[in-house]
Design goal:
This protein is mostly beta strands. The chain has a domain at 49-172. The protein has helices at 2-21, 36-40, and strands at residues 49-63, 66-80, 86-92, 101-102, 114-116, 125-126, 137-140, 143-149, 154-159, 162-166, 171-172. A 4-stranded antiparallel beta sheet has the order 4-3-8-9, with no helix packed on it. A hairpin with a 2-residue loop joins strand 1 and strand 2. The radius of gyration is 29 Å and the shape is elongated. 17% of the residues are buried.
Length: 179
């Protein structure tokens, strides 16, 4: 008798649970495909990808047989969005995570460019903490390399640029020399 009562209680509990679990895992039985409403819930926007490098030089910059006061150089720099398109690609100078300066080329194609006599006035340059040391370097606040996709998702790569410190003139070497 106990066995019959236990089986009856187990049966009474199992029947309502079977209705709750129907369709909870996987696709509906019999159709073989999900509805468009269900698949829309699982779409994830992938962040843009940034390839290549970006670097700066200030002071005595040698490039292709000539000396320059400064330049910014890109090497095979481009961006791509695995699941959409790129709507912006450039630099953020003031750390507001918005592009302040866009790269002037097709962002989806690899580009190696040298921009001579780059305008560093857009960037906050800090003097070294201990200017009396011969190895002292000036530095920029964080500069962000930003790529934005068509859905507003951003890939941000923070970087700091360093600059030489002119002990004689007590200034950061940024742009043309004053001598």
């Amino acid at each position: 008798m106990r066995t019959k009562v236990s089986l009856l209680i187990l049966f009474v509990i199992t029947i309502p649970l079977a209705g709750c679990l129907e369709g909870a895992i996987g696709v509906s039985e019999g159709t073989g495909e999900e509805s468009s409403d269900e698949s829309a819930e699982y779409i994830v926007n992938q962040e843009p990808l940034i390839y290549g490098s970006l670097q700066n030089c200030v002071g005595e910059c040698y490039y292709e047989g000539d000396w320059y006061d400064s330049f910014v150089r890109t090497r095979s720099l481009f961006t791509a969005d695995p699941d959409g398109t790129i709507s912006g690609f450039g630099m953020d100078w003031d750390n507001d995570f918005q592009i302040d300066w866009s790269f002037p080329w097709n962002w989806s194609e690899s580009n190696s460019t040298t921009i001579h006599d780059f305008n560093y006035t857009q960037i906050t340059i800090n003097s070294p903490e201990e200017p009396i040391h011969s190895d002292s370097r000036c530095y920029a606040n964080y500069i962000n390399l930003i790529s934005v996709d068509n859905q507003g998702l951003k890939k941000i790569i923070p970087m700091q640029w360093s600059f030489e410190y002119d002990e004689e003139n007590e200034r950061c070497k940024v742009g043309p020399s004053t001598n």
